[in-house]
């Protein structure tokens, strides 16, 4: 700021001759000031002699030169991915995706400009300036990019676990997890970007919902008490022990809202109580009536009612008793009536043949042996009204221990050998007896390619455990299954109470496909003769009193049976 001061007054003097030298001095002063100003303007148009922006040297440059130099010097670094380390894990942050860029104009702003301060002018000639680049950060994009990385970095905590194993409660310790702190990492990125090297992201520990201490507490307060000894089950004034190990097998602990909550497998616990009570003679299983046939007459083995527990009350009673001092669970008794009573059995007795069917087969020792073995097992099976029959369940798995031999079966459209090969003949014959009895067909699977000794569309293969032949007895009475095997045939007969007259219809073959020729040099190759593939639909016409009541349709798709020529000398 300049201040104007008034000049001091002096006595009047005689006029003197005007002198010119002050004007000269003044002129020289003006010229000096002009030069100073010119120097200030010249120096102000350039940066200080030793100036860097983000490590880029821009000393002695004009504003435009400095702007270009900074842009050239930083643009590659500004585009390069930024390594961000989270402990031992590392991720690369893309600046463009993360909304990171350099404001080049702002980065060089103020480095040039005129100043008449002698100190400032001196600094322009000799001074040093270090400046960080000015960043333009889109906070939303940066947060989104770091959040995406955080999802890959996060390690979920593992809750402590409490399990019962071999009659003992075992605790598995909790393991804390880690998560990236997005906000703190964003600060580190904006501070460390363009400075080189990796940026250390911020991590926070994530405590497990169920700690080891909480699991140990549940072990002491619940599991150890449950497993400390047997629980006495009191039913109708009679007691029997339920072993601690039996209870422990039904006990589990699950995390609920941060707590380990005990729970029991109710079905398994009721089953254990029933087994213990039956063994002790307190409980008694019901026995269904059994129908058998001999010498053309039927015999009914009477049903026997049993004594059970109130299944709905078992879990609560045992759970409470297992952590109590007296360890006694009182459970109400409950009658267990037979599902198939003597009266029902007598009322259901067959009155005659309701269906019968015979299929023929070429003799082959192993195959015929398997057919005979399965037929003997099937013969005499009795299916009560409303009961479902499963051929797989009735026969069980076909194994050499049960006497079955290896014989041809179809697998993936090719013949191969397996134990029980041939019993599809039994299944197909049974299926036709089911078909003509009018009983409800629940599950059947035709062979993949057509076998000429079977009726088209009315045949059923079988394979353990899933390819089954099942039906439900929806007739008016029980069904006695009789099966017999001759030298080249098997017959299955259903005796029961006639409910339906069944007729079969068959449509034409459609969608015919031709077989291929296959040469196989494997030793286990089984030769095949060619047959067309086709689709066929059969009808199942239900009649009563000579009138059609309904018709069901079954459509079957057969693939072609390829011609397989075995070239290995030991094949076949």
UniProtKB/TrEMBL annotation:
Keywords: Membrane, Transmembrane, Transmembrane helix. Residues 130-195, 232-325 form the YoaR-like putative peptidoglycan binding domain. It comes from the Bacteria. The chain crosses the membrane at residues 21-43. InterPro entries: Glycopeptide_resist_protein, Vancomycin_resist_VanW, YoaR-like_PG-bd. PANTHER family: EXPORTED PROTEIN (PTHR35788:SF1), EXPORTED PROTEIN-RELATED (PTHR35788). This is YoaR-like putative peptidoglycan binding domain-containing protein. It comes from Nostocoides australiense Ben110.
């Amino acid at each position: 700021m300049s201040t104007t001061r008034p000049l001091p007054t002096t006595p009047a003097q005689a006029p003197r001759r005007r002198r010119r030298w002050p004007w000269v001095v003044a002129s020289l002063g003006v010229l000096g000031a002009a030069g100073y100003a010119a120097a200030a303007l010249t120096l102000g148009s350039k940066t200080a002699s030793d100036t860097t922006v983000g490590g880029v040297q821009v000393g002695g440059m004009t504003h435009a030169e400095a702007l270009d130099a900074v842009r050239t010097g930083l643009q590659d670094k500004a585009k390069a991915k930024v390594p961000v380390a989270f402990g031992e894990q590392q991720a690369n942050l893309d600046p463009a995706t993360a909304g990171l860029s350099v404001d080049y104009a702002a980065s060089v702003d103020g480095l040039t400009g005129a100043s008449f301060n002698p100190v400032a002018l001196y600094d322009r000639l000799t001074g040093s300036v270090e400046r960080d680049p000015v960043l333009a950060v889109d906070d939303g994009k940066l947060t989104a990019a770091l959040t995406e990385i955080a999802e890959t970095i996060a390690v979920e905590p593992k809750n402590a676990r409490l399990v019962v194993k071999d009659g003992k409660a075992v605790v598995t310790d909790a393991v804390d997890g880690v998560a990236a702190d997005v906000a703190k990492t964003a600060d580190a990125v904006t501070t460390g970007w363009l400075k080189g090297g990796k940026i250390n992201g911020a991590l926070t520990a994530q405590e497990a919902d169920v700690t080891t201490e909480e699991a140990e507490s549940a072990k002491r307060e619940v599991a150890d008490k449950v497993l400390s000894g047997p629980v006495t089950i009191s039913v109708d004034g009679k007691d029997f022990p339920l072993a601690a190990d039996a209870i422990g097998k039904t006990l589990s602990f699950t995390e609920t809202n941060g707590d380990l909550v005990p729970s029991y497998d109710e079905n398994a616990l009721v089953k254990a109580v029933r087994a213990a009570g039956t063994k002790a003679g307190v409980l008694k299983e019901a026995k269904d009536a059994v129908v058998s046939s001999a010498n053309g007459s039927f015999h009914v083995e009477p049903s026997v009612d049993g004594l059970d527990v109130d299944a709905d009350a078992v879990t609560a009673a045992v759970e409470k008793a297992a952590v109590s001092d007296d360890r006694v669970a009182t459970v109400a008794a409950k009658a267990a009536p037979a599902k198939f009573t003597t009266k029902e059995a007598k009322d259901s007795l067959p009155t005659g043949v309701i269906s019968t069917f015979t299929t023929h087969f070429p003799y082959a020792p192993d195959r015929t042996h398997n057919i005979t073995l399965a037929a003997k097992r099937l013969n005499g099976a009795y299916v009560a009204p409303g009961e479902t029959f499963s051929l797989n369940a009735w026969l069980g798995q076909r194994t050499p221990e049960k006497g079955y031999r290896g014989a041809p079966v179809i697998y993936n459209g090719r013949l191969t050998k397996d134990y029980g090969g041939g019993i599809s003949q039994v299944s197909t014959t049974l299926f036709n007896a089911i078909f003509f009895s009018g009983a409800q067909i629940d599950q059947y699977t035709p062979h993949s390619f057509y076998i000429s000794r079977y009726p088209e569309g009315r045949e059923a293969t079988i394979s353990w455990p899933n390819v089954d032949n099942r039906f439900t007895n929806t007739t008016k009475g029980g069904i006695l299954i009789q099966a017999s095997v001759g030298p080249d045939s098997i017959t299955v007969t259903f005796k029961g109470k006639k409910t339906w007259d069944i007729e079969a219809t068959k449509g034409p073959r459609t969608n015919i496909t031709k077989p291929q020729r296959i040469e196989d040099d494997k030793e286990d190759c089984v030769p095949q003769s060619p047959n067309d593939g086709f689709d066929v639909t059969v009808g199942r016409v239900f009649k009563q009193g000579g009138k059609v009541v309904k018709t069901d349709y079954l459509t079957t798709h057969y693939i072609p049976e390829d011609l397989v020529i075995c070239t290995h000398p030991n094949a076949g």
